[in-house]
Specification:
This protein is of the alpha+beta class. It has one domain (11-169). It has helices at 2-40, 73-93, 99-122, 139-169; strands at 46-50, 54-61, 125-131, 136-137. Strand 3 (125-131) and strand 4 form a beta hairpin. Helix 2 (73-93) packs antiparallel against helix 3 (99-122). It is elongated, with a radius of gyration of 19 Å.
Length: 170
């Protein structure tokens, strides 16, 4: 019994390390890229990377991801704290031993803290990635969206597995 407990504890510990590395890496990448843009690209200017498709466009954003809810910094600070609490709740309450699940949680935590840091200390977020015919966004936004999509897929997949098992028992 002790060995079984230790085995699962060690497995969860390794997944916790993956989660923490992802969260810290996303935060650092987000802050470094925003700092580079703020330092090297004047506000409002645009650099074409892929003709008629991908640009670096330096803007300041007081709203949410992809330019929604402009001038809502205080509300978005609260929402960011809620997202961080949600990650903690998911991490503690759902015992999902999935590598991808822990990466996804790390992406969400890193992205939320990256934009939260900017909102608290700068009262705005630097956005700079522009895909043609779409809003300007940043690395934190990208990791948040990818993380939430992965979490949604994993949780739905687990739900349907449980439903399938309960149907097979009947």
């Amino acid at each position: 019994m002790v060995n079984k407990f230790f085995k699962y504890s060690l497995r969860l510990f390794k997944l916790d390390i993956v989660f923490a590395i992802c969260a810290v890496a996303v935060f650092i990448i987000d802050q470094l890229t925003k700092g580079l843009i703020m330092d090297k690209v004047p506000i409002g200017s645009q650099i074409e990377l892929i003709p008629d498709f991908l640009y670096i466009t330096h803007i300041k954003n007081t709203g949410a991801a992809f330019g929604m809810f402009q001038n809502s910094t205080d509300m978005l600070i609260i929402i960011s704290f809620i997202a961080i609490i949600l990650v903690a709740v998911l991490k503690v309450t759902l015992r999902i031993y999935s590598f991808i699940y822990h990466i996804a949680l790390g992406f969400v935590l890193g992205g939320a803290t990256g934009n939260l840091f900017d909102r608290v200390f700068l009262r705005e977020v630097t956005d700079f990635i522009q895909v043609n015919y779409f809003a300007v966004f940043n690395g934190a936004d990208s990791f948040l969206v990818i993380g939430f999509i992965l979490l949604f897929i994993i949780i739905i997949k687990i739900f349907f597995k449980k439903e399938e098992k309960s149907l097979n028992k009947d």
